[in-house]
């Protein structure tokens, strides 16, 4: 082979982007210092966010034009701030406003540039500055910055001549917005004070342009690196619907926008243009897919409907078949609570109405002007959620078809529709660590005494021996009869002795207990007592006596519980009755196949992870609602408190780290009917699987028949 060609000499216009390995070198004479790692990898790698947007507003327009900007484009930009001289009495909701305390235009521009550099100069690559009487096409601006190199000093906008100047230099007109690169902002910042003192101007955009030219020698440009900054100046009384100019249709920014209504009309107009473009692109892509699929081994049979959407999920066995839910316009025949029929309401009703409307609209677009359809009735409706593609619908519609001559005919038509899964978004979550201390709370009744020893053994082995950052508080629930006799016979004396042994074995460990006297051990009432005895930032894990504590679960408890954001209710794995499952063949399941020998008990809400501050906030709202009616508290669990009285996320998920051995729970009839029924269901479903129960019945019948 020939010799490897030498790389071209790197010059100003020939950057060598080949990666270089920087060898690690540590000075042996200096002491070793531990490197502190950053929280996020993008910080360590020096990544910046793409675009920061500043909107210049005023006290007079912050509640009108600035609100219109916020409603039309703010949600498209990752970060947008509003800058004003004087703050108005009422700041509109959802807008971050920075007031500089002076309405003078030059002062406002100076302070804004200074503020942007100080707070965001090191975090963003591009800075887009616009006025509140500017309509900017947000997606187009975002697309523009993705095509520009961040290594150059960029001052991009609508280039204008200076007033009374005949020189070649230009400034960017503020009304149409302009783009400044991070490198330019960093170079400009040291000269801002000199510009404020030396440059006299009436217009802030002209002042900034003069400052950049005089101190950096950079002029405003309207096109750069093959990208054009298209703008359009709006004349008075312009009719947007009749505006056909190519410059208007391609504009990134439109100015001046005189009122809120015009801003919304512009947004509607440009959104329609973008939507039409998107639909046209979809059609083009579908055509390309059809043409290419015809050349594949599967041929035209390989084209799935709708074209471009994933093919339906193909089940490999009958257990993987996704069932269809039947519905009419009034009722749903697959209800969340398990009942056979329920009224169609809320999101489901809206969904069905939209689908029927869309079906008729699609039929009309396909057959008009020959036929015009209108809906008479939905005969049958079926829907199912396919995780690979989205929601599928099959509708039997009774339609009235009208011809061009006015003849009408009623016919039934079956149509299929798909509501595809759209762009998946990652929801930003607050940062949490696994270092948080967990406070375990274990309520105990007399019926639980047989299981306490195992709980304490597992707690000692998995947390105390491993020095996990977890504490335990016991809650002794005395029946009024036992409470009277506690001087003679303490029913919890054995448990207290076990706790004493643990505290002797682990000198640094203290396991406090709280004694409570009640006939009805309501979860909420018990939690009220515990909550008052702990700091507000405590992370509670409400456990049951059958819970086997382990480090894996405690870490998930820490990670899934976020203060003022999310609470975690794990669904534990309940092992089946070994007498029914194994029938003497073997006594214990191995760890590899435990999922076969039990089920996740969705009826149980005994375990919960939450912060004390979140519980106290929700409990305060509950107290205001029920005015301390004890019977209401007896019918509630902690889960209900968070569900109905907090705005937090409730994370309910199966938890393979919480495995409970089979025991027949004692259900307290003094609790509410729903809680008692749920406890009984948990017991019954925890006996064995359907196949094991069927085998047990079969063997019993065989024994009886012989």
Automatic annotation (TrEMBL):
<comment type="similarity">
    <text>Belongs to the chondroitin N-acetylgalactosaminyltransferase family.</text>
</comment>
<protein>
    <recommendedName>
        <fullName>Hexosyltransferase</fullName>
        <ecNumber>2.4.1.-</ecNumber>
    </recommendedName>
</protein>
<dbReference type="GO" id="GO:0032580">
    <property type="term" value="C:Golgi cisterna membrane"/>
</dbReference>
<keyword id="KW-0333">Golgi apparatus</keyword>
<keyword id="KW-0808">Transferase</keyword>
<keyword id="KW-1133">Transmembrane helix</keyword>
<keyword id="KW-0472">Membrane</keyword>
<dbReference type="Pfam" id="PF05679">
    <property type="entry name" value="CHGN"/>
</dbReference>
<dbReference type="GO" id="GO:0047238">
    <property type="term" value="F:glucuronosyl-N-acetylgalactosaminyl-proteoglycan 4-beta-N-acetylgalactosaminyltransferase activity"/>
</dbReference>
<dbReference type="GO" id="GO:0050510">
    <property type="term" value="F:N-acetylgalactosaminyl-proteoglycan 3-beta-glucuronosyltransferase activity"/>
</dbReference>
<dbReference type="InterPro" id="IPR008428">
    <property type="entry name" value="Chond_GalNAc"/>
</dbReference>
<keyword id="KW-0735">Signal-anchor</keyword>
<keyword id="KW-0812">Transmembrane</keyword>
<dbReference type="InterPro" id="IPR051227">
    <property type="entry name" value="CS_glycosyltransferase"/>
</dbReference>
<keyword id="KW-0325">Glycoprotein</keyword>
């Amino acid at each position: 082979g020939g010799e490897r060609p030498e790389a071209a000499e790197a010059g100003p216009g020939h950057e060598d982007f080949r990666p270089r390995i920087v060898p690690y070198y540590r000075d042996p004479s200096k002491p070793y210092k531990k490197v502190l790692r950053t929280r996020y990898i993008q910080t360590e790698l020096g990544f910046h966010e793409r675009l920061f947007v500043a909107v210049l507003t005023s006290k007079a327009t912050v509640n009108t034009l600035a609100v219109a900007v916020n409603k039309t484009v703010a949600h498209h930009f990752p970060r947008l701030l509003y800058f004003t001289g004087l703050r108005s009495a009422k700041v509109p909701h959802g807008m971050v406003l920075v007031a500089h305390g002076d309405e003078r235009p030059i002062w406002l521009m100076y302070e804004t540039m200074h503020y942007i550099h100080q707070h965001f100069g090191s975090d963003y690559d591009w800075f887009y500055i616009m006025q509140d009487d500017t309509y900017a096409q947000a997606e187009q601006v975002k697309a523009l910055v993705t095509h520009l190199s961040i290594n150059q000093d960029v001052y991009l906008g609508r280039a204008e001549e200076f007033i009374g100047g005949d020189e070649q230099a230009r400034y960017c007109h503020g009304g149409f917005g302009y783009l400044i690169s991070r490198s330019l902002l960093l170079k400009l910042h040291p000269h801002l004070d000199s510009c404020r003192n030396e440059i006299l101007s009436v217009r802030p955009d002209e002042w900034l342009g003069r400052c950049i030219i005089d101190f950096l020698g950079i002029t405003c440009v309207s096109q750069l690196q093959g990208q054009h900054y298209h703008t359009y100046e709006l004349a008075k009384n312009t009719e947007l619907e009749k505006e056909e100019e190519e410059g208007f249709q391609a504009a990134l920014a439109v100015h001046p926008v005189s009122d809120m209504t015009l801003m919304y009309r512009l947004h509607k107009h440009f959104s329609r243009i973008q939507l039409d473009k998107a639909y046209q692109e979809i059609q083009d892509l579908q055509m390309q897919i059809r043409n290419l699929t015809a050349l594949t081994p599967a041929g035209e049979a390989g084209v799935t409907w709708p074209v471009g959407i994933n093919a339906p999920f193909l089940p490999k066995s009958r257990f993987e078949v996704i069932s269809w839910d039947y519905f009419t316009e009034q009722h749903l025949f697959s209800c969340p609570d398990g009942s056979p029929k329920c009224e169609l309401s809320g999101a489901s009703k809206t969904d069905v109405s939209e689908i029927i409307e869309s079906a008729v609209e699609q039929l009309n677009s396909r057959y008009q002007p020959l036929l015009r359809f209108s809906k008479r009735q939905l005969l049958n409706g079926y829907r199912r959620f396919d995780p690979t593609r989205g929601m599928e619908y099959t509708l039997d519609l009774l339609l009235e078809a009208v011809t061009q001559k006015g003849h009408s005919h009623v016919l039934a038509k079956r149509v299929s529709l798909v509501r595809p899964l759209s762009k998946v978004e990652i929801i930003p979550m607050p940062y949490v660590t696994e270092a948080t201390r967990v406070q375990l709370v274990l309520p105990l009744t007399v019926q639980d005494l047989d299981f306490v020893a195992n709980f304490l053994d597992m707690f000692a082995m998995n947390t105390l021996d491993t020095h996990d950052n977890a504490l335990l508080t016991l809650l002794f629930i005395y029946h009024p009869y036992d409470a009277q006799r506690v001087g003679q016979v303490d029913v919890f004396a054995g448990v207290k002795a076990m706790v004493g042994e643990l505290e002797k074995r682990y000198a640094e460990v203290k396991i406090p207990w709280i004694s409570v006297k009640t006939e009805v051990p309501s979860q909420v009432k018990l939690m009220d007592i515990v909550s008052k005895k702990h700091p507000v930032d405590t992370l509670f894990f409400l456990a049951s006596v059958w819970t086997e504590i382990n480090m894996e679960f405690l870490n998930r408890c820490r990670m899934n519980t976020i203060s003022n954001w999310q609470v975690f209710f794990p669904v534990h794995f309940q092992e089946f009755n070994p007498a029914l499952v194994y029938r003497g063949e073997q006594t214990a399941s191995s760890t590899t196949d435990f999922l076969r020998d039990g089920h996740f008990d969705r009826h149980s809400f005994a375990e919960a992870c939450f912060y004390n501050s979140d519980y106290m906030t929700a409990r305060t709202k509950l107290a205001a609602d029920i005015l301390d009616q004890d019977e209401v508290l007896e019918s509630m669990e902690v889960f209900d408190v968070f569900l109905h009285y907090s705005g937090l996320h409730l994370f309910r998920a199966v938890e393979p780290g919480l495995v409970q051995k089979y025991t027949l729970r004692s259900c307290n009839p003094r609790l509410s009917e729903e809680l008692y029924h749920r406890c009984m269901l948990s017991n019954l479903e925890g006996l064995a699987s359907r196949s094991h129960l069927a085998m047990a019945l079969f063997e019993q019948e065989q024994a009886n028949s012989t």
